[in-house]
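User: Design a sequence. Structure:
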């Protein structure tokens, strides 16, 4: 049996949840959110106080900061005091540097980035349908129809917040215009190639040894790693990006290389970790598609093809990669979420 609602948001990541939040604020509650995963958040995922997806925001991410304040959440500075380490060459010894304490700091969200997702989604948790992978969308009839592994849904307007490359794998009837399909296929999914690692410790031994926990280098097992202790300073961790050359290794072999590296530069206590987590986003079918290419530079996002409705004015593409500003980042997800809500309310 078909379930009908006025609006249907596909994807319960930051963008889709921001759209839902704005709809509610504007007195519109006839919507549902379909989410393929068994959790909300998408590329925001916090486990054991470790942000395995998005972790930082900047003080110029004003839409995100306003939203965080509105939801009465707190931010705090990324810890950088002490010696940081730079390894730029396999032949050269490690270089040590200290961060200017007066330079603007990257910010983290107290409680982890997932705190933002939880604060948003609890306002309309009854409207989120998990474990629902959208496979097809038909805009042939007056109401659009969504086919999923969990039933059929009909609605007047659909907001698709999947990364465009992934949205392109949904089957559309009628087919999308070729220029749109091409733009979607060519939009790199931000961070879809990243492998994150988070390691919990009972004490922040690196601080005691005079280190900030920041270590950077292209020739080492973890290309960037940082202190990842929580806001209350009751949980201590290091978190970073694994060198992609270790992707093909078995977990234990990768883990051994990472721990040995930390041990060598931060101290023998690195071996006494209490928990170890990894997440390879390239292997997550709800973020990545198979044709994966490494991408280190910020690609140009916010293609103007995403500005208009498709499918007889019932389909709108949103999500961070469609944002005209700060595409790829949480700020871009929030901006795209606001824009989508505004557009569908104006075109109601
Ligand atoms: C490792 C990593 C590190 C990052 N670091 C930062 C950072 O420090 N700072 C920052 O600002 N940003 C960072 N980002 C980017 C940030 O996470 C994203 O900008 C933001 O979370 C994107 O939100 P979104 O809603 O646009 O997309 P997503 O979070 O990808 O949401 C899309 C949703 O659609 C769902 N979905 C997928 N397919 C289907 C389907 N067929 N049917 C139904 N649902 C589906 C997904 O499960 C997901 O929940 C990072 C991302 C990663 C992966």
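Assistant: Done.
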């Amino acid at each position: 049996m078909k379930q009908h609602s006025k609006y249907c948001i596909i994807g319960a990541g930051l963008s889709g949840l921001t759209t839902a939040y704005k709809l509610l604020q504007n007195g519109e509650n006839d919507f549902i959110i379909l989410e393929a995963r068994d959790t909300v958040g998408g590329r925001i995922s916090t486990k054991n106080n470790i942000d395995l997806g998005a972790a930082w925001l900047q003080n110029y991410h004003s839409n995100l900061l306003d939203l965080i304040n509105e939801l009465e959440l707190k931010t705090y500075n990324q810890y950088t005091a002490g010696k940081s380490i730079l390894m730029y060459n396999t032949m050269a010894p490690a270089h040590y540097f200290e961060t200017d304490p007066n330079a603007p700091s990257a910010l983290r969200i107290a409680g982890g980035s997932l705190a933002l997702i939880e604060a948003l989604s609890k306002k309309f948790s009854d409207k989120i349908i998990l474990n629902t992978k959208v496979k097809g969308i038909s805009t042939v009839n007056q109401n659009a129809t969504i086919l999923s592994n969990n039933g059929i849904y009909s609605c007047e307007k659909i907001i698709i917040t999947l990364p465009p490359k992934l949205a392109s794998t949904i089957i559309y009837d009628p087919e999308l215009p070729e220029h749109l399909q091409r733009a979607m296929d060519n939009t790199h999914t931000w961070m879809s190639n990243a492998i994150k690692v988070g390691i919990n410790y009972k004490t922040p031994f690196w601080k005691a040894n005079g280190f900030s926990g920041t270590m950077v280098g292209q020739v080492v097992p973890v290309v960037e790693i940082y202190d990842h202790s929580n806001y209350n300073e009751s949980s201590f961790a290091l978190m970073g990006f694994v060198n992609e050359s270790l992707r093909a290794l078995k977990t234990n072999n990768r883990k051994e290389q990472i721990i040995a590296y930390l041990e060598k530069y931060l101290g023998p206590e690195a071996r006494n970790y209490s928990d170890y987590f990894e997440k390879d986003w390239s292997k997550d079918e709800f973020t990545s598609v198979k044709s994966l290419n490494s991408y280190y530079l910020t690609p140009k996002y916010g293609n103007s093809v995403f500005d208009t409705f498709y499918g007889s004015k019932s389909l709108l593409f949103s999500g961070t990669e469609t944002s005209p500003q700060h595409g790829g980042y949480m700020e871009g997800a929030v901006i795209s979420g606001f824009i989508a809500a505004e557009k569908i309310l104006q075109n109601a």
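Residues 10-16, 34-37, 42-44, 53-57, 133-134, 161-163, 166, 190-191, 194, 196, 281, 286-287, 319-320, 328-330, 332-333 surround flavin-adenine dinucleotide (CB under 6 Å). The mean pLDDT is 95.
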